[in-house]
Amino acid sequence: MFKEDTTMMNSNPPLFQQYELLLQSTAHLQPLHNGYQPTSSVLEECQLPLVDLKGLESGKEKERMACSREIFEASAEWGFFQVINHGIRSELLSRMSKEQMKLFAVPFEKKSTSGILDNSYRWGAATATQPNQFSWSEAFHIPLTKVSEADCYGDFIHLREVMEELATAMSKLARSLAGVLVESLGHRKEVFEDMCDESTCFLRLNHYPICPFPGEVTGLVPHTDSDYLTILHQDSGGGLQLMKGSQWVAVKPIPEALVVNIGDLLQAWSNDTYKSVKHRVVTNSVRERYSTAYFLCPSNQSGIGSCRQPSPYRHFTFGEYRKQVRDDVEKTGYKVGLSRFRL
What we know:
Elements: H1 15-25, E1 45-46, E2 50-52, H2 61-77, E3 80-84, H3 90-104, H4 108-113, H5 116-119, E4 121-123, E5 138-143, H6 144-147, H7 157-184, H8 190-195, E6 202-208, E7 218-223, E8 229-234, E9 240-244, E10 247-251, E11 258-262, H9 264-269, E12 279-282, E13 289-296, E14 303-304, E15 316-317, H10 318-332
Parallel strand pairs: 1-10, 2-3
Antiparallel strand pairs: 3-11, 4-5, 5-6, 6-13, 7-12, 8-11, 8-13, 9-10, 9-12, 14-15
Pfam family, one: 2OG-FeII_Oxy
Family: Belongs to the iron/ascorbate-dependent oxidoreductase family.
Keywords: Iron, Metal-binding, Oxidoreductase
């Protein structure tokens, strides 16, 4: 059916084989689109709202308020924005990218069996039952509590150094932005300081290999994030798309900028003021893509309350939400999300 470049197989997971098996096993079925256009059906490239965070550090109240307002408006209208002057050194982000590339260049068998990075290696989509539920990607999904443990890294000593520094910097940025969003709705920023928990926050290192049929399969299937807030550093190749209204739009990368997006928990807490927007990563037939994401989460026991009553959601804990998401993905192949918890 298709031919794959076997020179890539030493390091890349067997994505081609798994995807081909899905195609063969579902050839007799009608395609399941879940309401989404094919990856090639994108009408425009957009530039997300761009926020210069130096305004938050200004000695002038007017400038601080203007910056906070930009963050609020972008979170309410788009659910996504990009930030510059965010306090994370470009040299650190460059080092992370280089170490990440070295990590993913390790032979597939070693990545999948050596237990490196707390045995957090994942690839493809084990629960996929339809081709459009498959992700052409691989990733390491590392809890913050494990980032500083030397035993997790094996020979990757330099990776540990840069991951520790990046995790600290991204955590500080995420909490700062969450504080702004909480204060914008009339609450103390310490509200999230009390709820966020390093034991459930994590870093995710992503690699999207070259794909021989990019219009047919996504690098990461459409989804919303199951956290409060996500900070993303991506390379210059692009590939990130988000749903704006009923149309997929491609996000134009900006050098030195980080992407920020609202997660499900912040949408629920804000009574839908802030938007957790569906997004995906498309594949590319000529170049691979790398990204690093930080996810700001509460403890599993934390109740996801509301900024005011009445709330459109019933009370639930983060642990309960995570379990429901896992159950839905295992049963249906895709995430249902907040609609499960609406009153």
